[in-house]
Amino acid sequence: MQFDKAYIFLTEKLERELPSYLTYHNATHTKEVVEAVRHIAPSEQLTSSELQILCTAALFHDAGFLETYNNHEEVSCNVARRYLPQFDYSDDEIEGVCKLIMITKLPQSPATTLEKILCDADLFYLGTDTYFVTSEKLYAELKAAKLMKSTKQWYDLQVSFLQSHRYFTELAIRKNDMKKAMNLQQIKESYEHRKRPVKEFLIKGFHDIFFICLGVIIAGFGLKGFLVPNNFFDGGVTGISLLMHELYHFNLAYTIVLANLPLLLISYFVVSRNFAIKTFIAVLLLGICLLSFPYPTITQDKLLISIFGGFFLGVGTGLTMRAGCALDGVEVLALYTLKRSSFTITEIILGINIIIFVIAAFKFGLETSLYSILTYFTASRTIDYVIEGIEAYTGVTIISGESELIKYRLVNGLKRGITVYKGERGFLPGNFEISNDVDIIFTVVTRLELRRLKNLVYEVDPKAFVFANTVKEASGGIVKRKLREH
Fold first, then answer.
1. pLDDT tens-digit profile of 336-345?
2. Entry pTM
3. DSSP state, 422?
4. Is the Cβ–Cβ distance between 410 and 456 less than 8 Å?
5. Which domains does the chain have, with CATH numbers?
């Protein structure tokens, strides 16, 4: 039996040919099962031949995923029968391998020592520190295979499986049982934490509704109380809507809503569904405010109009952003265009605004255009203050005892690149001598993604330490969503 050659052959074949959505049943899992067999086997006093057969069964036990997802064990046996003869395995040895492979089919019912070792090796991760990262990979795979419909279904499956599972070898029972029980308890606690009380959910919803409504009312005041009566303009989609209103006398409320609709559809795919829904509600409410609210005209002074019109518009936009949406879809348009051009987000938005202000200069005079630029600048700076100075890019540092799972979710869930620093945590007053090694995670997100990132982190570890800081310039890496918020 030439196991080493068979190992190289099959692991390379798995790495090369397995579908990419197999995030759990892949070459890495196969290698880990082989290593677990080698870890358990010495305590069971196997012969050299028995160990070779057992390692070969571990190597081929998921080879059937090369051809099918369901009932892969039978196909794994066929793959073993197809390739093992070229590595000097006899027919009896191959049938011994296949008998072991079939015993890994769930629910497991091993009878012999070899069967018990292989079953424990296949599910060895259940009682280790890597359980949550590995289970996250399995969840992603089941979702991709359309075998898992909801998070609740996944949590129920984990609880049921861990409660019914048992190890068979003395080593696995001794080393893994307690950790498996701890993992089960953590799953239950995590799920209870995710099931937010109705009161908390209502408070959060009221918080968002309050900021959206307040932001819309204030933004409407900036438009109808200052800009519209004096033929002033802003940048972005709002500026385009104001131009259409002044040039063709279209109703401003309808124009703003209609102008944002295509961009809201794009944001559904480019940003997120929740963002698109909230933004649609905010834009619709702004249209209703512009139609219904009797905003008074405040002043005729052009300097006051440009500054305070921009100020109130910026306050309104900033408040809606704090609720997880936006009143102007130009950033989404810029992001969509970025994928189809070599321009940066800033260059795209600048180009749009230059067109708006040049048209305003030709139609309404250079002075009006210059004052409108001041309005746009004031609105932009005000937004920055309202959302606490967070710029388009935000660097986030995360320190947590659950760093492995957080890293996995940031990369595969949020689609962010990460950098990991090796550090120590602890050194608390009264316990200065106590510290632990920790991975310090750093990533860069847009401010629209910051809230989602925090939710992701605190879902994994409510005690995680997270802090953010402004990133003035960002380039390279996989920073994809370069949004310049208006």
1. 666 666 666 5
2. 0.55
3. E
4. yes
5. 3-194 (1.10.3210.10), 198-386 (no CATH), 393-471 (3.30.70.120)
